[in-house]
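quick one, 266 residues, struct below
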Amino acid sequence: MDYCKIIKNDNATFVAFAPAKLNIDLLIGNIDNNGMHEITSTMQAISLHDTITLSISNSVGINIYGFIVKDNIILKALSMLQKYIGKDLNCSIRIDKSIPMGAGMGGGSSDAATLLRLANVAFDLGLDIIELEDIASNIGNDVSFLLHGGRAKVCGSLKHNIVGMNVPNMHYLIARPNMELSTKIMYKLHDDSGKSFKELASDLCPDTKRLLFDLSKTSPIECGITGKGPTVFAGYNSYKKCIAAMESINWFKNEIFIEHAIGKFE
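---
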């Protein structure tokens, strides 16, 4: 499956995957003049994805399948894009959700980034990546990276500096505890305690702490939490090793995914 291309079904319908991301590492820095924390993170796009379908029409409509979404970032993305180019883009948007909400895997951000990519192609806007990044920086965290995909070192706050890296041949075991952590509260706890998100998620979510301990004993190449948590990942150089690691956490009864790293989007 090619996760990176935009598919043109006909002259009016375009489809693209919106892949999730993992924060392989995450360092939280100081608060800048915009009141936002600077971050430094290695991010990796993975095969777990939502699917976005954009159809050119006479009015704007949106249908979301898989989850109930309260504040839809994809509508914000469409609004920001229309404001940037100075005209309305009438289209019907269908979102088939597979990425869990609130799991630290960037599902909403990826939907927004994918809409920007789709609309740019569908309406032949001719925007380059710098212009798309400018729009993305006003939408939400991780949107700029998810315009690119692949693996990158991402630094900054409101606007991110994105430096591409080689994509490893990696499979990931991803375990999502049945708990949602507030980004706002996690940053406040970090500011108050100086603890990393990994430490805080372990304090707040017993399953996160146990998963990190058990998976660390399976000799992963990469292991940690993604975003604010509580989702835990462990990376291996084969699918077989992911299966073995999954068997080591047979006590865990919530969502588990086995995915692989993917390259840059087209």
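Residues 46 and 261 are 5 Å apart (CA to CA).
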